[in-house]
């Protein structure tokens, strides 16, 4: 039996219990059995990006990140906005992808879980950086699904049925694009 395609989930938040990570945990929970959905752990472990270090052998955390992206059929991102842009730790993660080719032409999308009227700066920066990496942005899968704080269960999974359904639709749209 062939291995199911892997969808890599990247959280832009390193905060424990964040709504962004809860959204991605929920994507993993609602994923059909035909997919292997993996939440990348460890963005806080990445060293500060330095172009002088972007060569083999890569720092181990960078090598793991790039290998996960390379293995993925598609990438789904959920990131907060800090000070009108991407959080520094997540921008650092993305900076480490610029020197590799793993994300180039990879179907990629994002979910914005911020309250209405918020998160536009993070989206704009994410679009710019992903453009530099050559990622194939799947526009119909780039959506805003506001998530109220405190709506996750003890496992960090969102319980709102409408939100769960919309997250399943995003995954379906993204994986449909990755099969194309």
Automatic annotation (TrEMBL):
<feature type="domain" description="NADPH-dependent FMN reductase-like">
    <location>
        <begin position="6"/>
        <end position="143"/>
    </location>
</feature>
<dbReference type="Pfam" id="PF03358">
    <property type="entry name" value="FMN_red"/>
</dbReference>
<protein>
    <submittedName>
        <fullName>NAD(P)H-dependent oxidoreductase</fullName>
    </submittedName>
</protein>
<dbReference type="InterPro" id="IPR029039">
    <property type="entry name" value="Flavoprotein-like_sf"/>
</dbReference>
<dbReference type="InterPro" id="IPR005025">
    <property type="entry name" value="FMN_Rdtase-like_dom"/>
</dbReference>
<dbReference type="InterPro" id="IPR050712">
    <property type="entry name" value="NAD(P)H-dep_reductase"/>
</dbReference>
């Amino acid at each position: 039996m062939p291995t199911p395609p892997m969808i890599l989930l990247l959280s832009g938040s390193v905060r424990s219990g964040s709504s962004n990570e809860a959204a991605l945990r929920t994507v993993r929970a609602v994923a059909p059995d035909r997919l292997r959905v993996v939440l990348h752990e460890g963005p806080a472990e990445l060293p500060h990006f330095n172009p002088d270090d972007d060569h083999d052998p890569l720092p181990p955390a960078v090598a793991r990140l790039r290998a996960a992206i390379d293995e993925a059929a598609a990438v789904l991102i959920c990131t907060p906005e800090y000070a009108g842009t991407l959080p520094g730790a997540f921008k650092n993660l993305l900076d480490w992808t610029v020197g590799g080719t793993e994300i180039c032409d990879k179907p990629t999308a994002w979910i914005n879980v911020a309250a209405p009227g918020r998160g536009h700066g993070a989206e704009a920066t994410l679009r710019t950086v992903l453009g530099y990496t050559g990622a194939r942005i799947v526009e119909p899968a780039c959506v805003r699904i506001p998530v109220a704080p405190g709506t996750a269960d003890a496992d960090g999974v969102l319980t709102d049925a409408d939100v769960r359904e919309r997250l399943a639709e995003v995954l379906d749209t993204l994986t449909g694009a990755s099969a194309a």
